[in-house]
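[Meeting: bench + compute handoff]

Bench side (C.D.) handed over the final construct sequence. Compute side (W.E.) agreed to return the predicted structure before the next meeting so the bench team could plan truncations. Sequence as handed over:
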Amino acid sequence: MKISVALCTYNGEKFISEQLQSIINQTVSVDEIIICDDNSTDKTASICEEILSKSGIDYKIVVNEASLGVANNFLKALKMTTGDYIFTCDQDDVWHKNKVEIFIKEAKKSNRLIYFSNGLLVDSNNHSLNKTLWDSINLNFSEIEGCDSPLKTILKRPIVTGAAMCVSKKLIDKVDSIPENWLHDEWFSIIASVEKSIIPIDEITFNYRQHGNNVVGATKKSFKEGLSSWFNGFNTISEFRKCKKNRAFDILNMAQNTEFEGIAQKYFDFWNTLYEFQNLCALKQIIKNTKYLLQGKYNKFYTGYRGYLRDVLAAVLAKK
């Protein structure tokens, strides 16, 4: 079984050394490290070269001539790997010494497209924030335990983070491109869930660094920050609904002719209708929003009462 790491970097000189050393010093060694640097302006690539040249691990460092963005850069790195299982990796985290061992032990027992674990949130100095990645997204293991298709959970919120993920080469071979509005980990988790081929690992296998410049972070906002963000969201709620509608359409296409086609259709209908609601007067919007709430659709496909309240306020504020 060959093990690869797909590591994407961009101006990561501050943390990349610690991350690479944590990969090199695993109890079960990786066979290959592929780094795609998204046109950094700092010394990231040269630091990687210096460390990996002494590691004894096969590696390749590619610096993009122009920025590809997170999703496409990861897809490029993944397509370059040759391993049977590939760990997607951020530049600023720290792996626990037995991360690979834990994942590969699970992979040897099953034949799945995705495995994902929990992580410990740490600050920029790698000090514990006393909170896990799953805590930050309100994910309880019992919600997905024994389930090889957490699609219903994923429809409400993303639960598979790239830093916590290991994928089979079979999954990478299925993906030629990543649809607009998706990150690589989100899209991969949809594919694997539809194919009932995803396994959660209830262990903390890495430190998930939170430093203010994360592409996707997990730190909790203060009440003031959260409230400000919530109200600012009214300015872009139409774009938000359009994005959700388009993503729902992608999921529906993925789920066609599977046992999940029905729920994917309902998910699309929910977001498509919410998008169309905004053309109605405020009173009609609120009536329809309330009907959806009572039917349980807000709880099934969105954030329950919080989403409902946001939509009601958006309807009122839009008409002022």
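W.E. noted at the follow-up: The longest helix spans residues 237-255. C.D. will use this when planning the next construct.
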